[in-house]
Amino acid sequence: MAAIRVDELCKSYGSVRAVDGMDFRVERGELFGFLGPNGAGKTTTIRALTGQIAPDGGDVRVLGCDPTAEPIETRRRVGILPEQGSPPSFLTPREYLEFVGSVRDLEPEYVAERIDRWTDRLGFGGKLDTLHTDLSRGQQQKVMIAQAFLHEPDAVLIDEPLANLDPLVQEQVKRFLVAYAADDNAVFVSTHNIDVAESICTRVGIVADGRMVTERSLAKGGEDADADADADADPLLEVFLREVTDADARDLPSSAHDRIEGKAGDSERDPRLEATGR
């Protein structure tokens, strides 16, 4: 049974069809990248997966739980890292992580050990007893990463995990996510950044107009899993541009902005891509 399963998910806000028949699976051992332009339905899908909204139609299961009918159980068992999430301003990191541990029925000794481990991994030990109002956005993001993995969940739902982190911590987090998925866990990462998806994901799904338009398997390091058999396999960026034909240039993922400028049509390639072989 897939750790994360979405079947024909639909959700509308008034006359706007935010998600229109979304389908995908994430198995244990996978690091699945959820790619798409702004307005593609990514955030709505994540909210359905975490029980924040009820779908209009379709079926969603996370570790066998129905997030709509069992929101508390889903959040207890699953690790969740929301985009731009922040811990309560009136608590310190230690107090917040201890609270998260108690909600998830973890023993205090276990929580203390996990706090020490994440303090060492992300380097915020000196801030454990500082109110969150006095922490930078990057430091708060480290705390939010720690809470998502505090109970070592079998499935994790992550929205833009590297936001506000410095390059060194970004690299540490990417390596951790790869290793965590490889340890028979399901890791779902929603991102605008194609470079991030290429570097860590084993499989990616590209969404547009509320639907999954294509999925692609990647080898470790972001290389096409079938590259040895197919030397002409298109880079992920080109697949994205081809599939998301309705995306406005300002809504392209951040790495596309860096690599492409002045694209006049679907068939025109940036000469820098030709020069680099991408």
From TrEMBL:
InterPro entries (alphabetical): AAA+_ATPase, ABC_transporter-like_ATP-bd, ABC_Transporter_VariousFunc, P-loop_NTPase
UniProt xrefs under PROSITE patterns: ABC_TRANSPORTER_2 (PS50893)
Domain of life: Archaea
Transmembrane domains' residue ranges: none
Residue ranges constituting the ABC transporter domain according to the UniProt record: 4-234
Alphabetized UniProt keyword annotations: ATP-binding, Nucleotide-binding, Transport
UniProt cross-references to SMART domains, sorted A to Z: AAA
Xref: Pfam families: ABC_tran
One Gene Ontology MF term: ATP binding
UniProt entry tagged with the keyword Metal-binding: no
Annotated region (Disordered), positions in chain: 248-278
Official protein name in the record: ABC-2 type transport system ATP-binding protein
Protein's organism: Natronobacterium haloterrestre (Halobiforma haloterrestris)
